[in-house]
Inverse folding.
């Protein structure tokens, strides 16, 4: 009788994710100090990629697959490897590349581990995630049902429930037409909330919800590597993280806020046409 391979624990996966993110973060900081980076564009003139995005993704894939060769890994810069172990890694080597190029501290290495067979519905379940923000010396981590932490200390989402006193973060697509529509939605949201923030890295925005640095985050058009780790961290910090109609976070949209604020913001954003922006 074959012996089944035991599933790795979320803590084991987080340990590997964190060690890997630390190495990648050093690479990012070294690249920034060196300067003179090669920059290409991707989907539009504003969607940039540097040699460091690609080098960091290679480093992350080599380190994770070196220790766990049967795992799958999907990364923003093109790595797409199937899993035979049931574990899949979701990697954004630099979330916030524009910030990175400007030396603005709002960029991060984002690594999540999903279990593909851990849910009866067949959906992937994110079980561990790290968002490493090198220039802020902040390391956000979470494991499923294990809580969320910043530099090892427990963190929690805010308790603000009135949208009028909520600080709301958002982000914009790289597509110029979608950007215009997203900005139009925000003209309706801004008069109804405390203020808006656009930091430039979705993973950091989700961690900002997790630690109460903002009260909510909303964005449409994100990819799995933008939100996989941050969504787990925000959820483990007590936030509701879902599409405007309550489904699992997706490319369609993601709204993260504490459970008292979430429904009221969801209604406000829907009324403002956010679902179509
Ligand atoms: C982007 C950032 C940004 C968000 C964009 C993302 P990238 O990721 O997370 O905040 O608004 O939608 O694409 O391109 O810097 O990895
Ligand atoms: Ca990203
Ligand atoms: Ca990226």
């Amino acid at each position: 009788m074959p012996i089944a391979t035991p599933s790795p624990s979320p803590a084991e996966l987080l340990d590997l994710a964190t060690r890997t993110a630390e190495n990648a973060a050093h690479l990012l900081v070294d690249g920034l100090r060196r300067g003179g980076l090669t920059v290409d564009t991707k989907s539009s003139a504003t969607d940039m990629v540097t040699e460091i995005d690609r080098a960091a993704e290679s480093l992350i894939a080599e380190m994770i697959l070196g220790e766990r060769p049967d795992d799958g890994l999907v990364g923003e810069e093109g790595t797409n490897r199937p899993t035979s172990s049931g574990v899949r890694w979701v990697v954004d080597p630099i979330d916030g590349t524009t910030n990175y190029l400007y030396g603005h501290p709002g960029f991060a290495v984002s690594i999540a581990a999903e279990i593909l067979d851990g849910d009866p519905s067949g959906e992937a379940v994110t079980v561990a995630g790290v968002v490493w923000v090198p220039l802020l010396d902040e390391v956000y981590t979470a494991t499923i049902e294990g809580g969320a932490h910043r530099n090892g200390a427990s963190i929690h989402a805010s308790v603000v429930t009135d949208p009028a006193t909520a600080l709301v973060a958002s982000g914009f697509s790289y597509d110029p037409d979608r950007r215009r529509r997203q900005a139009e939605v925000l003209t309706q949201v801004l008069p109804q909330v405390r203020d808006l923030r656009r930091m430039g890295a979705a993973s950091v925005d989700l961690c900002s919800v997790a630690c109460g640095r903002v009260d909510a985050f909303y964005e449409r058009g994100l990819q799995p590597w933008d939100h996989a780790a941050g969504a787990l961290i925000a959820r483990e910090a007590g936030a509701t993280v879902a599409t405007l109609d309550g489904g699992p976070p997706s490319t369609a949209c993601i709204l993260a806020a504490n459970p008292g604020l979430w429904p009221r913001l969801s209604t406000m954003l829907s009324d403002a046409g956010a679902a179509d922006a």
